[in-house]
What does this fold into?
Amino acid sequence: MRKKLAFTGLILVVVLTLVTGCGQPKTASVTLTVSAAGSLKDVLNELKATYTHQHPDIQIAYNFAASGPLEQQIEEGAPVDVFISAGKPQMDALAQKGLIVSSSRKDLLSNTLVLIARPDTKITGVEDLAGSAVKRIAIGAPASVPAGQYAEEALTNLKLWDKLQPKLVQGNDVRQVLTYVEQGDVDAGIVYRTDAAMGKNIKVVADVPASSYQPVDYPIAVIKASAHPQEARAFAAFLESDQAAAVFKKYGFVVLGH
It folds into this structure.
């Protein structure tokens, strides 16, 4: 009798264990690594919260930096699933080396350059940067930061680049340029409009003439070596959706194709 009761009890324990196990919530099964231009940090973090709420089995790990270093990391074999660049040359370089899924590449967003300074500045336009009152001007490092490349192109076309060389302070990314201006380390800086909108104790002095630089486009693509290509494509598709477009627009981006 005791053996029968013990066996019955064992069966109940096994059944309860199976039932309880089936009722437990699933843990995240996939983590996507998304390398993205630093100027996208705020908007992508908001979109991450939305996406992971809708897809609890997916986690998003961002790697924010200037697009040049991100490109180099991918070329060196860093485990990245999705890349969003702040310039086409970086994506073009990966495409030429066969490192992206070509069919997944899309131009996602567009941005513009603005001149920023402290609220009490007397600077009124880009032409004032050549004046003796302006001692230091921050831009992204043109060698690795797309915002810096666009700034160099604009200043060159405006016949100011050579004159301003002694005044230039180069930042590692566009957010560092913003910080330099916020802290008063420089008299002015050139950043994306979307970054200026996130700034504190600064003001937009003027638009950098759009005719002086190439359009600032943000291409997106799935990396060919992705360990989770299906999930990577799904996340990229979400960023191209109407739902994501509304959030991008809220942060001041121009959404291409919408």
